[in-house]
Please model this.
Amino acid sequence: MRAEFESKAFSRGLQFPSQALRVGTDCSGLDAPVFALKALALPGGIRHMFSCEVCVRKQAFLRENNTTVVFYPDMLKRNHSLLADIDVYLYGFHCKPFSTLHTGSQGFREQAARPFVAVLATLRQKLPPLAVLENVWGIRRHLNRVHRALHSLKWYEVITVGIDPYEMGEPVRRRRCWFVLVRVDVARARAGDLDDHARALLPLGRRTEHAQPSERLLTNDCTYIQEFLRRRARPKQITAASRGGLRPAASRGVRQLWRSQCAPHPRTKLSQIVQGL
Model:
């Protein structure tokens, strides 16, 4: 895909940057965009400058896998002017206020939508040449509000596109709305011409054949799966905590209930690890 994209870009007078891209992410999750950029193997590579995530479990993952970056636990409580200079800013803002599955959604009036204000402050302070924002498809109901806020920065051309991973050959339907911001003083094109570049390049990722879910799972010979199997095979020490702290009489009652209701069902089908699980 990269070779196809690069060839098309070159034919339109565009090219990949030769220097390392400095990247910052907010509402980072597990920093999937950073892993994707590394997988592209750009000529100059990337330099991951900062991440920000409020979820404690995701914080542990980020700190384990990105030991050299500056980490912020809450973008609402930081000084945006002290952020490192970046070339690319990536932000997947909270989707619950805008999801059609969220009954009674109040959009930007909800507490969970507050980080968007911090994003605008980050963009004003750092003015990265490129920014990419992502949210659920339901945010279309608030497009006017989003566009007004982004254009109020007065520095960016804004491209809005809808992309579904299923269209790109992935085994999942999850259409998302993407806002691509290009700073006007470094843009190779403006307005309609910029839209033409986007229309020419975006279809290159589309695929008519789709991967199966099993193709996205780790196989049994993977190092991580082998380690999991080794841990699972170790004898477990039965303790009161592992029984849920039940008293002996209570635990006997649970075992009897299990034997009467569950034991008759065949278990042989699960005796072998299913390939890919």
Summary: The chain has two domains: 2-213, 217-270. The chain has a mean pLDDT of 85. The first strand starts at residue 21 and ends at 26.
